[in-house]
Amino acid sequence: MASVKKRLPGNVAGEFYVDSTCIDCDQCRQIAPATFRARGEHSIVFRQPATAEELRRADKAMVACPSGSIGALGKRDLSEAIAAYPERVDGNVHFCGFAAESTYGGSSYLIVRPQGNVLVDAPRFARHLVRRIEEIGGVRLMFLTHVDDVGDHAKFRRHFGCDRVMHGDDARFPVERRLEGEEPARLADDLLVIPTPGHTKGHQVLLYAGRMLFTGDHLAWSPEEHSLTAYRDVCWYSWAEQTRSVEKLLAYRFDWVLPGHGPRHHCSSREMHHHLERCVRAMKGERQRSVGKTR
Ligand code: SF4
């Protein structure tokens, strides 16, 4: 819970504030960009919410914040914000909110399907979220993109009895469906797992319904560059492998990218393909530059 004693000095005066426990995960800036902004290694409130919609978003950011770093001077009724999660992104795909601190505030998603719901990476095991997920059919499968974003996976497994799907090279704990190798694996007609080693050795992405790609920490959207991007500074295994794995995705068509961190992006699959080509070119260029540097 946020403490006014730890209120960051960069916050604008008024009801909402961010305190010094902020881990700079970016969720609040995604959810309520009119209120929160990055400042140094934290977020701050740069403008107090003024409209009903801005207030609603600030409340939702407060609920999603993994470290409880967003506070309000008065007591706020968060019931509406809590009930907003899981929040529909497109069709039957939802953003779970309730980020876990252990995932550094990673985004997790719920695909609601008649054949059984799929949780993509694990959020915080929060009572309200769990109840809401129960109401919309529970969880049949939990797809874990990689070892950093597993969150409260064990609690979700225990509660829903769902099978966890993970690559053997990243599974540091027993999982019910352990995938191996680099061949894509079809979990169902509409669920294709594509191994993408690079960020970690056992990283995988999930292509849903031939159009929505859950990318974990493999691939992200950069609003600044208006392009797809990958983060070299947090590549823990191999940048060369990650480049190769991003290039491999050129063989697929998708119009949504839903990453573990940062903004989601939707455009035509044709445009997405161009963004991906540009990203691969940039990654290869960067690799050549860095090879040059080491000589
Ligand atoms: S959601 Fe919380 S932890 Fe993440 S940037 Fe905002 S205040 Fe910081």
Task: Explain this structure.
- This protein is an alpha+beta fold.
- It has two domains: about 5-80, Alpha-Beta Plaits; about 85-295, Metallo-beta-lactamase, Chain A (4-Layer Sandwich).
- The chain has helices spanning about 25-30, 50-65, 80-85, 125-135, 155-160, 240-250, 270-295, and strands spanning about 15-20, 35-40, 40-45, 70, 85-90, 95, 110, 120, 140-145, 165, 175-180, 185-190, 190-195, 205-210, 210-215, 220, 225-230, 255-260, 265.
- Strands 5-6-7-8-9-10-11 form a seven-stranded mixed sheet, with no helix packed on it. The chain has a six-stranded mixed sheet with strand order 12-13-14-15-18-19, with no helix packed on it. Strands 1-4 form a two-stranded antiparallel sheet.
- The longest helix has 26 residues, at about 270-295.
- The termini are far apart.
- Bound molecules: iron/sulfur cluster.
- Iron/sulfur cluster binds near residues 22, 24, 25 and 28.
Summarize the structure.
It is built from 7 helices and 19 strands.
Measured distance between first and last alpha carbons: 50 Å
Helix-strand category: alpha+beta
State the share of residues found in helices, binned by percent: 25-40%
What is the CATH topology descriptor of the largest domain?
Metallo-beta-lactamase, Chain A
Sheet-strand content, in percent, reads 15-25%
Total strand segments: 19
**Could you name the CATH homologous superfamily of the largest domain?**
Ribonuclease Z/Hydroxyacylglutathione hydrolase-like
Mean pLDDT, nearest integer? 95
Topology as H/E string?
EHEEHEHEEEEHEHEEEEEEEEHEEH
Largest sheet: 7 strands, mixed
Which compounds are bound in this model? Answer: iron/sulfur cluster
